[in-house]
Structures are given as structure tokens and as C-alpha cells.
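Fold this sequence, please.
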Amino acid sequence: MSMGRGDRAATTAPQCTGTVIASRQSRQILANPRLAVYDNPHTLLMCVYKRDKALCHRGLKDTPSLDRCVPACANIARTDQHAAGLRRRATALDQQAGHVPGLPGERLRDNATRLRDLANAHHRTRTTLQDGTA
């Protein structure tokens, strides 16, 4: 069984890791008129765009290149909903990996593990209402 072009792209495409933020912080960011916030559902992240910190195009534009997210970019943030999406995508990759032998299947499983690690980091470090700080 050979992999299709889309499957190869999914296993080798660069992924954004971002910074973990709490829901309260997310609401504050969205409410701040001085910030440009872009929600990118395809990459499961928000870009809290600050041109001087953007790695997607080195500050040459006034908007981010959401299809060129750089994992170390300081503008990246995630919410609880993004973390849940990461888990769903990881489950889908694991299911797909069950049908793909060899190295391509391993890459799919590795991507699934990385996505779960991002979601786990979010849930480990987030601030919630139960903490009394959100």
C-alpha cells in the first residue's frame, strides 16, 4: 500500500507548538483592540500577532502567514478548545496509522504522540476557574 500525496504532506508538514494560555487570557487577548488575533482552526492555534516577533515572514507584512507558522514563534497561543482538537487529530492519525505499514505509519504515530504531548502540556499548565485565578 502506498501513501497518497496528502498523507505524505500530513506526516512531514511542519507543525506549530505555540505557547499555552488559559481561557481567561484568551478572552483578554481577544478583547484588546491593540492586538490583532487570528484564530486558525486548521492548525489548532491562535496567532496573537505582533509584527516584531513574527517568525512566519520576518516582519515584512502587517498580517501573519498562517500557513507558515514556525514552532518557536512567540505569537502562537492555544485554548482548551485547541487542545481538544489536538487530541481528536491525534486519534485520527493513530487510526490512519493502523492502515499504513512501515515508516509512514510510524510517522503518523509520532505526529499523534507529539499532538497529544502539546495537549497534555496545555492541560498541565493552564489556569482554570477552580484555581481561583481565571
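The two ends are 49 Å apart (CA to CA). The mean pLDDT is 77.
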